[in-house]
Description:
This protein is α+β, with helices and mostly antiparallel strands. About 30% of the residues lie in helices and about 20% in strands. The protein has 2 helices and 3 strands. Strands 1-2-3 form a 3-stranded antiparallel beta sheet, covered by helices on one side. The longest helix is centred in the C-terminal third of the chain and has 20 residues, at about 75-90. The N and C termini lie far apart (about 30 Å).
Amino acid sequence: MVPENEIQESFARSGGPGGQNVNKTSTKVELRWNVDASAAFTDEQKSLIKEKLKNRINQLGELIIVAQEERSQAQNRELAMKKLNGLVAVALTPEKKRI
């Protein structure tokens, strides 16, 4: 699980559901996690994460997750955290050997 103190978050106006509320509040959440700078994972785990999620990691080594499906900032933040931790968990799951 990615520690919250290693994640940078920013908020913006969302294009998702919410009616007139969308025009007034910043509900879209963008999480950025620098894989290389993480102290929570070993070098082997970091290289595995970078290899499996290379299409989602930018030039700076940041894994970026965006959530704007829900109407509230808190719900979108929770959803983005679940996405981030889910992606990292899947990347660290060893592949089964084929017979």
